[in-house]
Write a structure and sequence with these properties.
Length: about 260
């Protein structure tokens, strides 16, 4: 059996070797082998055997079928400061897994700026930190800013999602995006104001625990991972694409 390498980015950061295919691995990570607790998970398949940060020989020695022929589910190679050690060029597809273990594959694509620059952006940081951020920076600039070692506060690499803006003046048609922002509307508007065009502040933390209730329904353009120099973009599929490619996943993710 082939050995796959998976970088899990939510809800935990790790590099895991497995004989399971991406779809099988997504089901295993979401529901477990004993069908106990369930949770969404996100992971990126990566090309292995690069650099010296991980013990690839150990992975191949340990990631072998069980005596009854069942595939090895997981061999952990790292559980700390893992994302920063994975070159973007080694990243393949991102997989979004629902609570019942259905996985949706998103291939990376070239990032292009939006045609119309927004007054503000909302980002859910997912790995290695998880605040919900209001920013004046578009995704590429935000990734560069948050991973800039010259900044007072930075991380070596970041994985985050672009969140759809709530329609604060039209609550009936804002969809599933609005709940948190309406409950803390004054605080949200204050965050937007603090990063307005006349301010030197680039980013403002809106919520520190929202990742615990993160939903794929909230995602705007997609997911990004960057390390200051390179940005990998995983575009969120449209509803039409989800219906055509993986309808059951869309139902499970409550998007359809």
């Amino acid at each position: 059996m082939a050995v796959h390498y998976y970088l899990t980015v939510f809800p935990m950061e790790a590099l895991i070797a497995s004989e399971l295919s991406p779809v099988q691995f997504g089901s295993y990570m979401a529901t477990g082998s004993k069908r106990g607790n369930s949770e969404i998970s996100m992971f990126i398949e990566v090309d292995g055997k690069f650099g010296s940060d991980f013990d690839w020989q150990y992975a191949e020695q340990q990631c072998v079928p069980h005596s009854n022929g069942d595939p090895k589910h997981s061999v952990y190679l790292s559980v700390y400061r893992t994302l920063e050690k994975i070159p973007p060029a080694k990243m393949k597809s991102l997989y979004l897994t629902t609570r019942d273990g259905r996985a949706y594959e998103i291939n990376p694509t070239d990032y292009t700026p939006e045609k119309t620059e927004k007054d503000y952006y909302i980002y859910q940081e997912l790995c290695p930190i998880t605040p919900l951020i209001v920013s004046k920076l578009p995704p590429d600039a935000f990734a560069g800013n948050i991973t800039d070692p010259e900044q007072k506060v930075s991380v070596p690499a970041i994985f985050f999602a672009d969140i759809r803006q709530p329609k604060l003046d039209d609550p009936e048609h804002t969809g599933n995006t609005g709940g948190l922002f309406f409950r803390q509307k004054a605080h949200f508007l204050n965050c937007v104001s603090s990063i307005s065009s006349g301010s030197k502040k680039m980013n403002k933390t809106f919520n520190r625990t929202h990742a615990e209730s993160f939903s794929y329904q909230l995602v705007g353009r997609g997911f990004y991972t960057g390390n200051g120099k390179d940005l990998v973009f995983f575009p969120m599929p449209t509803i039409e694409e989800i219906k055509e490619k993986n309808y059951d996943w869309g139902r499970s993710a409550l998007i359809i």
